[in-house]
Amino acid sequence: MDSSTGSSRGPAGFSTQANALLRKNLCFQKRNLKTNVCITLFPILLCVLLVLLQGAIDREIDKPKYRCGCACVDAAADGTCRRTECGVQYSTLDQVASCPIPTPPRWPALVQLPTPESRAISIASQPFDGLPGQTCRDAGSCPAAFLVTGANRSLAESLSGQLFPALSSPLNFTDYLGALSKIVPGSDTTPEFRQLLEPAFTPGNTLYIVQPQCRSNLSQTVLFNAGIIPLQLNVECIQGLMLWRESESIVNDELFRGYRQQRESGREKANEFAAGYNFLSTNKDSLDISIWFNSTYSNNTAFTEIALLRVPRLVNMASNAYIKFLRGSGVEMLLEYVKDMPKVGTKLKFDLSSLLGALFFTWIVELLFPVVLTYLVYEKQQKLKIMMKMHGLKDGPYWMITYTYFFALSAVYMLLFIIFGSMIGLRFFTANNYSIQIVFYFIYINLQIALAFFAASFFSSVKIATVVGYIYVFGSGLLGAFLLRFFVEDNSFPKGWIVVMEIIPGFSLYRGLYEFGQYAFSGTAMGISGMEWTNLSDPVNGMRTVLIIMVIEWAILLPLAFYLDQVSSLGGGLRKRLLISLKCFKKRAASFRRYSFGRQGSKVVVEMENPDTTQEREVVEQLLLEPSANHAIISDNLTKVYHGKDGNPDKLAVRGLSLALPKGQCFGMLGPNGAGKTSFISMMIGLIPPTSGTAYVHGMDIRTDMNEIYTNMGVCPQHEYGLDLMIFSV
Ligand SMILES: *[C@@H]1O[C@H](CO)[C@@H](O)[C@H](O)[C@H]1NC(C)=O
Ligand SMILES: *[C@@H]1O[C@H](CO)[C@@H](O)[C@H](O)[C@H]1NC(C)=O
Ligand SMILES: *[C@@H]1O[C@H](CO)[C@@H](O)[C@H](O)[C@H]1NC(C)=O
Q1: Of the spans 217-231, 295-309, 638-652, which averages the highest pLDDT?
Q2: More confident: 669 or 286
Q3: Phi and psi for 625 in degrees, rounded to 5?
Q4: Same domain (yes/no): 557, 618
Q5: E strand or H helix at 575, and its extent?
Q6: Is 118 helix (H, G, I), strand (E, B) or coil?
Q7: Of 410 and 393, which is predicted with more confidence?
Q8: Which of 240, 187, 241, 239 is CA-nearest to residue 216?
Q9: Which of 111, 132, 110 is nearest to 120 (CA)?
């Protein structure tokens, strides 16, 4: 050891430290070129994958199967086509949706009827009044039952008797709209998204005529021309049954119990009614009704409002009956047809990036997390940080520079990501307001860096940190997509719990990206732009909450990470460090003398030591009692025990080393391998904490004042040159 010439150098300036650290970081990145290339390629790979999938979907959607149907209307003699025409009349059900419809067809208004096997009957478990038994089901001839209630029973019954006008003459299908408006037609098909095509009139389906009593001659198959579309129709009679119930609650109860259910055998059992009427307080002066109808008659749960298409006839039945009741059976109120509004031709659109984007992009953005984390843990594992501190790097500059460095790295990465995504035309990026996106990513990358700093305190091995980091990335993405997403979309799930889940940064990222995706997707479908600043106040938009959560979390995590780092730099395991930091204030106040009492137990050893050692020990004891400025280093009974692992006994590396080195002296330490030279130097430079005892460098304790000691010290570690060299200057 050298306590040399006397000219003390001050700590390096900020710019020097920044410069050196930056060079070191760049060097590190250059060495990890392969990893860096992979990380840069990953987003590009995912984006390209998205584009390819999107292309495949677009091609599939663009197939004639989904394009408005066309047909040749004017074929030349040689078989070539002179004129093709496109439109609804040439389309299948799949194609209709994309046709332009300047004059929508008129359709008779129908009532929704339950399918033959689920129409209400009287069974043992549900013995409803007035219903036929099981036999009608076997024959497929069950009536369509309607429940009726009201304040005035006689009035309600006489009105409901008029609900299904009986057919007086055979149906005349040349004027099918007029003919069907005078009676009640119904269908058990599921309605379409829009009433551009009424599925009841497509081949293979049956049009039911609801009658008070069925006559056998009504069943027929008719061919007729509905405007432009030639139709083939099976017409059948179905008996309409009006059942009086005493109160609204009874009607509710019977409707409820009849709901289709999956029974043990796996077969569906149902006892469904077609509709229910409550004539409330209807009298001669006013018609007052409420109607029960089933809005779930649709394959597509997202569009339950479709079933409303078959409600107009139910209303008309009641008003028609009422006017007959008031003015006699000669007066009618007819609903001739229903007709949708005209529409232009559309193209099916499906934006995959908005749908899958949230998951893919969560992975891409989070990918930087393990990079930052492993870097930080690597510095710790390789003791690079301590080395740098020995060479004059202070904590403040280290943090500022490292943070700025990773921020710059993340910002460039995110910027490239947005630019690349926009360039290849992903709606996810182009549809949403760029300023919101930039603010969101800006906040998130800050949070992510803070999180990495925080997490780094808990790892000491790069391998474990890497594994945990990547598990976090892929796990939080998948959990976001398959758990959080369902909670978000489930309106009954408490919003508070979603906020709690979003405290996990991966989830808040997923939620934000999910919102971008949703806005881009619905924007694409409706031909408008995605998320704007004004949308932040939409009640379903979780973006504002996410932004707030992330900012708060960042403000908490960063100081916490800094604190943990400070504590851990004192050496030893984290738990121990936490304890030390709590006791820290007391210990700093303690004087040298206190430590000289701490080693009474080692007296026995002293007796057996050789005279030189004993003499040195006495010098140290004397110095501790009367501190003198003449000694650069005082080692007081410094001991290091490595605890045995896997059943091996503990190994005593340094045994109670006492040493006093005057200033201006050069001290060399010789010894065979395993004598404890390196352990001693490691303790002196703060790499490992002493098991007991301590040492003082210029009066500063190596257990607590390492940061100040570093400004006076230089070390050349063994693994580079085969010998340790430690230099303290005064
Ligand atoms: C029920 O309606 C009938 C027919 O309009 C009427 O004659 C009778 O007074 C009403 N009964 C009550 C209790 O209002
Ligand atoms: C309403 O319609 C759905 C779908 O067809 C059916 O499962 C359900 O049983 C119906 N509910 C009632 C009360 O009839
Ligand atoms: C609804 O489902 C039935 C049977 O599951 C099917 O035959 C029918 O085509 C579907 N309708 C629509 C509009 O998808």
Answers
A1: 638-652
A2: 286
A3: -75, -40
A4: no
A5: helix 574-589
A6: helix
A7: 410
A8: 239
A9: 132
Please tell me the distance from the alpha carbon of residue 182 to that of residue 320, in angstroms, as a whole number. 10
- Ligand closest to the CA atom of residue 300: 3
387 domain-assigned: yes
Q: Do 457 and 493 share a domain, yes or no? A: yes
**H or E stretch covering 640:** strand 631-642
Looking at the chain, the whole-number percentage of residues with pLDDT higher than 70 is 84
Last residue of a domain, one of 295, 327, 359: 327
Q: What is the Å distance from ligand 3's center to 105 Cα?
A: 22
Cα separation, 621 vs 660, in Å, equals 10
Does residue 115's CB lie within 6 angstroms of at least one atom of ligand 3? no
Measured in Å, residue 311 CA sits from the centre of ligand 2 at 15
> Where a domain ends, among 327, 362, 387?
327
Q: Which has more confidence, 542 or 194?
A: 542
Place of tokens 């006495």: 618
Question: 270 CB less than 6 Å from ligand 2?
Answer: yes
Please give the Cα distance from 409 to 372 (Å, whole number): 10
542 within 8 A of 516, measured Cβ to Cβ: no
pLDDT over threshold 50, residue 598: no
pLDDT surpassing 90 at residue 621: no
The residues with which 657 forms a beta bridge, in sequence order, are 638
Q: For the chain, what is the mean pLDDT?
A: 80
The one-letter code for the residue type at 562 is F
Q: Is the pLDDT of residue 184 over 50?
A: yes
| Mutation test residue for ligand 2: of 111, 128, 260, the one with most atoms within 8 Å of CB | 260
Q: Which residues contact 634 (CB under 8 A, 6 or more apart)?
A: 620, 623, 624, 659, 660, 661, 695, 696
For the Cβ of 296 lying below 6 angstroms from any atom of ligand 2, the answer is yes
Binding site membership of 255 for ligand 2 (Cβ less than 6 Å): yes
In 336-426, which ranges are continuous DSSP H helix?
352-366, 368-381, 384-390, 395-423
Determine, yes or no, domain membership for 312. yes
Residue of 118, 131, 252, 296 best suited for mutating to test ligand 2, as the one with most atoms within 8 Å of CB:
296
Give nearest CA residue, ligand 1 atom 10.
152
Are 92 and 220 in the same domain? no
Angle between helices 395-423 and 352-366 (to 10 degrees): 160
284: Cβ below 6 Å to ligand 1? yes
Q: What is the pLDDT of residues 326-357, one digit of tens each?
A: 999 889 999 999 888 888 877 777 777 766 77
Residues 554, 603 within the same domain: no
341 found inside a domain: no
Give the C-alpha separation, 246 to 224, whole Å. Answer: 44
Most trustworthy range by pLDDT among 63-72, 150-159, 616-625? 150-159
CB 286 less than 6 A from any atom of ligand 1? no
Bigger pLDDT: 282 vs 39: 282
User: Do the domain assignments include residue 453?
Assistant: yes
Report CA(154)–ligand 1 centroid distance (Å): 7
How far apart are the CA of 299 and the centre of ligand 3, in A? 6
CB neighbours of residue 536 within 10 Å: 15
What does the pLDDT read at residue 567?
78
Most confident option among 152-161, 340-349, 597-606 = 152-161
Residue numbers of the domain that contains 698: 599-728
* Residues 481 and 528 placed together within one structural domain of the fold: yes
User: Residue 730 — very low, low, confident or very high, per pLDDT cuts 50/70/90?
Assistant: very low
pLDDT recorded at residue 541: 87
- The strand pairing partners of 453, in sequence order, are none
- Who wins on pLDDT, 658 or 313? 313
Compute the average pLDDT of residues 191-202: 73
- From 112, 189, 299, mutation site for ligand 3 pocket: most ligand atoms within 8 A of C-beta: 299
Q: Domains in the chain: how many in total?
A: 4
Pick the residue whose CA is nearest to atom 14 on ligand 3. Answer: 299
Number of the ligand 1 atom closest to the C-alpha atom of 284: 5
| Confidence band for 193, pLDDT divided at 50, 70 and 90 | low
